[in-house]
Amino acid sequence: MARGIIVACRSVPDLVFAIVFVEALGIGVLPGVLAIGLHSVGMLGKLYAEGIEQVPEQPRQAVAATGASRLQNLATSVLPQILPSFSSVTLYRLDINLRGSVILGYVGAGGIGFLLNQYMDTLQFRAAIGIVIVIFALIVAMEVASAAIRRSLIGADRPAKSVLTAIAFDRRTVRPPWTRARIEGHAYTASALVLIAVSFWATKVNPVQAVTSLRQIWDTVRLYFPPDFTTARDSLISGTLQSLSVALVATAIGFLLAVPIGLLASRNISDRWTYRSTRGFLLVIRAVPELILAIVFVVAVGLGLVAGTFALIVGTIGFLSKLIADGVEEVGPMPREAVLSAGATRMQETATAVILPSAPALVGNGLYMLDVNFRSATILGLVGGGGIGFLLQQSVQVLAYRTTGAIIILTFAVVLAIEVITSWVRKHLI
C-alpha cells in the first residue's frame, strides 16, 4: 500500500497536479505548494525506502539481541546509518522544488515562475535571465548548506578515531556527550524548523484552507474520470511510445556520462580542485529548469523529439551525477584502506571498494531516472518537445478532462512497471 501511494504521487507530473489545484483553488501560492508537496512524496518516499533497504542487517540483529523494541531498534541501528542519505536527498529535493516552482508558475501556481512566464511572453529576455541567475544563486546556497550538513553527519573532515574511543557515553545517563558534531546536528535541525516557520509566514499559506477545500479538489479530480481512451487512442499510443523512447535514450546517455562526473564530484575520490570544479559544473546544469532547456533546444534545433531528448540528457546528467556523488561520499573508508593495503592500484580500489558497494544505488537511481525522464517528457511536450506532452497540452487547452485522465492513467502504468522492474533488480543485487 505504501509503495502504491509513492508510485501514484510520482506518476502524476507536478504540472498536472498544479493544473488541478489551480482549477480547484484558484491562482496563488497554495496550489503550487500542494502540487510540489504531493509530487515530493513520490521521490522522497522511494529514495528513503531504498536507503533503508540498503542498511546492513547485522547492527539491527545485534540491537534486537539486547531485547530492544522495534521502535528502539529503528532509532538506534537504522536511523544513524541513513541520516546522511536522508539529509542529502531532502536537501536535493529542495533545489528540485525550487526549479519546479518555476515550471508551475506557467500555469498560475504563483512563485518566481509566474514572473518568468510574464517576461518570456513579453520577450523581456534580459529580465528572464536575471530570474535564472537568482535561481542559480539560491541553488548554490542550498549546495553549500547541503555540503556542510553532510560533512557534519559523515565526518569527512574529521580525523578517524578508534572504534572504541569514537563515542564516549555517560554511563549515568547512557547518552552521548555534546560533541561538536552533535551540536552542529541540533543547530541544523533548529535552523530548518525556523526556516520552515518563516516560509509559512512569508507565503501566507494557510494549511487549513487545503483541508476545507477538499470538496472542491475532489469535484475537480472527478472531472478527469472515468478516463477516455477512445477519442485520441492512436495519439495516446504513439505519444506514450515516443515519450518512453525519449526517456530511454536520455537516461542511457545521461547515465553513461553521469557516472564518471559523479565520481569526480565526490569529496573522497577527487582532489580539492577537481571536486570544486566538477561541483560547480553540476550547479550550472542544475540551475536551469528542464522547461527552459527545452525552450532553448527548440529554438536551436526546432520542434520535435530531438529538442526534448537533448534537454532531458542535460537534466539527467545534473540529477544523477549529484545522487552518485553523494552516494559515493557515504562509502566507508575502512574497506578502501583494506583494498589499498593489499597492493591494489587507485583505479582497482575505486572499482572494488567504491563502485561495487554502490551498485544497488546506481542501478536504483538509474531506473528511477527513467521514470523521472518519462514524466519530464510529458512536460517538455508543452513547449514543443514532442511525445505525449503535446497531446497533454492539447487536452488541457480544450478542457478535454477525460483525455487528460487517460494520459494520467497511462503515465501511472508506465511508472508502475518501472517500479516493479526496479524492485526486482534491487532484490537480486542486494
Question: What is the gist of this entry?
Answer:
By secondary structure, the protein is mostly helical. The protein has helices at about 1-10, 15-25, 30-55, 55-65, 70-105, 110-120, 125-155, 180-205, 205-210, 215-220, 235-265, 270-285, 290-300, 305-330, 335-340, 345-355, 360-380, 390-395, 400-430. The protein has 2 domains: about 1-220, MetI-like (MetI-like fold), CATH 1.10.3720; about 225-430, MetI-like fold (Orthogonal Bundle), CATH 1.10.3720.10.
Explain this structure to me?
It contains 19 helices and no strands. With 430 residues, it is mainly α. The protein folds into 2 domains: 1-222, MetI-like fold (Orthogonal Bundle), CATH 1.10.3720; 227-430, MetI-like fold (Orthogonal Bundle), CATH 1.10.3720.10. α2 packs across α10 and α5 (70-104) runs parallel beside α6 (112-121). Mean pLDDT is 79; it is low at 156-166.
